[in-house]
């Protein structure tokens, strides 16, 4: 798959297959992410999102296929890939008994920065992520949002070109989620390439330049948010009738105005139809309803959402994962087949 905007692909996954015994975790998965952009990876629980991230971050080997980061082959040169990437998993990987500053200083030293460089980098990141006031506090006293920011800060110690964010806002309150979105946008503005896995569809809509939808280990759709929304049709008219006994008359009036029979939700008293002309068709609809003596409680024109896309593609609504509900394809990995590279 070529990058969505014609730039160079920083993340490439081609025909990747990964099996655990009889369980197929990834079944010919292919997608790519453009350099300096945010690639959103959507999918229900067990779709294979986290498995894909583990492969790209060199934690798992594939059975077949190819994956690369900034042109470096994940299987052939895992150490080279690790010099390019940062990873923030579904759970904050910070030491609760160390302070925020001590966590970052420790990570910097593990990256072989000098003591002076490590301290300077820790100070810089704490300031950047608005954690300077809490730098000397143990992490166990931090809120969920603060821990998440510290976790991302730790992933940025070595200034990676590519960041993998696996469900970065799961379990956060709305205010912390919005704060995390701001952090991600700032990093992208500075040139970082992002792969973001999420089940929060508003998050993908807000952050992702391009999106791939995964289900049962395969990419079943890809494109920009608007391109995906166009797959489920254009704008839709929705109106609610005050008197349920007038639903049939309302349906006839709407069909006369739009030359198309609407769907009727009898229990809700709601009629729905495509609105190919957008708001321009409203006067015709209202006129026909008035002539039929039908009074309406509400009328609106809706654009398709990513929720609509997700449901039409997967057959089910998106349900955010809880903090103790990891990706199903990763939860049952037999140890004998978990091929993890030695740490850098």
What does this molecule look like?
The chain has 344 residues and is an alpha/beta fold. Among the domains are: 9-84 and 160-230 and 315-337, Rossmann fold, CATH 3.40.50; 236-302, Alpha-Beta Plaits (2-Layer Sandwich), CATH 3.30.70. 33% of the residues lie in helices and 25% in strands. The chain is built from 12 helices and 14 strands. The protein has a 6-stranded mixed beta sheet with strand order 6-7-8-3-9-10, sandwiched between helices. Helix 5 (144-155) runs parallel beside helix 6. The longest helix is centred in the middle third of the chain and has 16 residues, at 174-189. The chain is elongated and about 80 Å long. Mean pLDDT is 86; it is low at 1-6 and 321-344.
Query: Strand arrangement, largest sheet?
Result: 6-7-8-3-9-10
User: On the 0-100 scale, what is the average pLDDT?
Assistant: 86
- Elements, N to C (H/E): EEEHEEHEHHHEHEHEEHEHEEHEHH
What's the CATH H-level superfamily name of the domain at 9-84 and 160-230 and 315-337?
P-loop containing nucleotide triphosphate hydrolases
Distance between the termini: 30 Å
Count of DSSP-assigned helices: 12
How would a textbook summarize the main sheet?
6 strands, mixed
Shape: elongated
CATH topology of the domain at 9-84 and 160-230 and 315-337: Rossmann fold
List keywords for this structure.
344 residues, alpha/beta, Rossmann fold, Alpha-Beta Plaits, 33% helix, 25% strand, disordered N terminus, disordered C terminus
């Amino acid at each position: 798959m070529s990058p969505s905007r014609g730039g160079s692909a920083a993340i490439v996954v081609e025909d990747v297959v990964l099996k655990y015994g009889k369980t197929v975790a990834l079944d010919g998965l292919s997608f790519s992410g453009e350099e300096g952009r945010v690639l959103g990876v959507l999918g229900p629980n067990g779709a294979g999102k986290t498995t894909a991230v583990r492969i790209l971050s060199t934690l798992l080997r594939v059975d077949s296929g190819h994956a690369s980061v900034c042109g470096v082959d994940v299987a052939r040169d895992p150490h080279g890939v690790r010099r390019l990437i940062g990873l923030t998993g579904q759970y904050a990987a910070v030491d609760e008994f160390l302070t925020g500053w001590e966590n970052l200083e420790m990570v910097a030293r593990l990256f072989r920065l000098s003591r002076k460089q490590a301290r300077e980098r820790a100070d810089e990141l704490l300031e950047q992520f608005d954690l300077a006031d809490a730098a000397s506090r143990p992490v166990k006293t931090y809120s969920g949002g603060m821990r998440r920011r510290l976790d991302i800060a730790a992933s940025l110690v070595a200034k990676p070109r590519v960041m993998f964010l696996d469900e970065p806002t799961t379990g956060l309150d709305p205010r912390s989620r919005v704060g995390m979105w701001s952090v991600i946008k700032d990093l992208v503005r500075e040139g970082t390439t992002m792969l973001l896995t999420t089940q929060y569809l508003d998050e993908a809509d807000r952050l992702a330049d391009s999106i791939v939808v995964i289900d049962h280990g395969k990419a079943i759709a890809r494109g920009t948010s608007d391109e995906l929304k166009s797959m489920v049709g254009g704008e839709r008219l929705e109106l609610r009738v005050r008197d349920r006994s007038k639903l049939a008359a309302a349906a006839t009036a709407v069909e006369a105005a739009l030359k198309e029979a609407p769907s009727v939700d009898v229990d809700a008293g709601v009629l729905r139809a495509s609105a190919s002309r957008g708001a321009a068709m409203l006067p015709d609809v209202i006129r026909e309803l008035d002539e039929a003596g039908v009074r309406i409680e509400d009328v609106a024109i809706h654009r398709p959402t990513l929720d609509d896309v997700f449901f039409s593609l997967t057959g089910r609504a998106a349900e955010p994962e809880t903090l103790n509900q990891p990706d199903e394809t990763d939860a049952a990995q037999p140890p004998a087949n978990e091929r993890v590279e030695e740490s850098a």
